[in-house]
């Protein structure tokens, strides 16, 4: 996942370098006062792909993760701190699904667990932007977030022996990303790519300490990539 994230960064920066060469003359500036207000508001739509990072107790066969694409939607509140720095709060709803394949089982009903997650995410982010270049401006963004997983099954009395994979409801993360602000005639449009990395263990182990599903898992943490499109 980190290599994919780095490759996307190189592609976006490479495209940015091409765009610089296309703005040799001063263009007509759109929304010249867009970034001067103390407070700014908007919303975002996007896609995500969640993964898991496992820490194992013993060096046995790994658990396989089949990732799928989910969707994101949320709001943006921004406070201008400086010409190049903004503090952002981006509460949003993130839906994703992962399928786990556990080794050592002959029956598919035992080996496969579909993990559907609906996160309500509350990130507090610092956005660092370059100087505006015509009608676009690259930026980096990073910070911390707290998430509530509505599909965690944390309170369920059933575990994997009954087909239920359980996770903790509350998750804490750090997030890092980059993107570009494009100033159109009517609004600011900002595509961005961001990685999210859980810093807390999310696993609720099975009731049996020697469970063939969770007995060898020391910790489980979410990893994910967000592709968001913001409108401000």
Please tell me about this protein's structure.
This protein has 232 residues and is mainly beta. The chain has a single domain (38-231), classed as Porin (Beta Barrel), CATH 2.40.160. Helices cover 10% and strands 52% of the residues. Strands 1, 2, 3, 4, 5, 6, 7, 8, 9 and 10 form a ten-stranded antiparallel β-sheet that branches. A hairpin with a 4-residue loop joins strand 3 and strand 4 (85-89). The relative contact order is 0.20.
Number of domains: 1
Q: What is the helix/strand order?
A: HEEEEEHEEEEE
Oligomer: single chain
Shape: elongated
Sheet/helix structural class: mainly beta
Ranges where pLDDT stays below 50 over 5 or more residues in a row are 14-24
pLDDT averaged over residues = 89
In the CATH hierarchy, the third-tier topology is known as: Porin
Helix content range of the residues, please?
10-25%
InterPro entries: Beta-barrel_OMP_2
Pfam families: OMP_b-brl_2
Organism: Muriicola marianensis
Protein name: PorT protein
């Amino acid at each position: 996942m980190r290599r994919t994230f780095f490759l996307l960064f190189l592609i976006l920066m490479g495209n940015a370098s091409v765009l610089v060469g296309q703005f040799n003359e001063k263009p007509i500036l759109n929304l010249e006062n867009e970034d001067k207000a103390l407070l700014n508001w908007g919303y975002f739509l996007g896609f995500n792909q969640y993964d898991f990072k496992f820490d194992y107790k013993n060096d046995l066969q790994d658990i396989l993760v089949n990732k799928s694409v989910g969707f994101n939607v949320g709001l943006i509140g921004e406070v201008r701190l400086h010409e190049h720095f903004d503090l952002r709060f981006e509460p949003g709803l993130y839906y994703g699904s992962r399928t786990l394949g556990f080794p050592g089982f002959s029956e598919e009903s035992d080996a496969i667990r579909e993990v559907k997650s609906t996160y309500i995410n509350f990130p507090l982010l610092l956005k660092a932007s370059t100087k505006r270049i015509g009608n676009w401006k690259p930026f980096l963004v990073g910070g911390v977030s707290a998430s509530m997983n509505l599909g965690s099954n944390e309170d369920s009395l059933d575990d994997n022996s009954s087909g239920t994979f359980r996770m903790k409801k509350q998750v804490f993360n750090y997030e890092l990303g980059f993107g570009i602000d494009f100033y159109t005639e009517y609004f600011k449009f900002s595509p961005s790519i961001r990685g999210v990395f859980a810093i807390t263990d999310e696993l609720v182990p099975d009731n049996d300490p020697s469970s063939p599903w969770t007995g060898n898992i020391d910790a489980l943490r979410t990893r994910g990539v967000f592709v968001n499109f913001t409108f401000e």
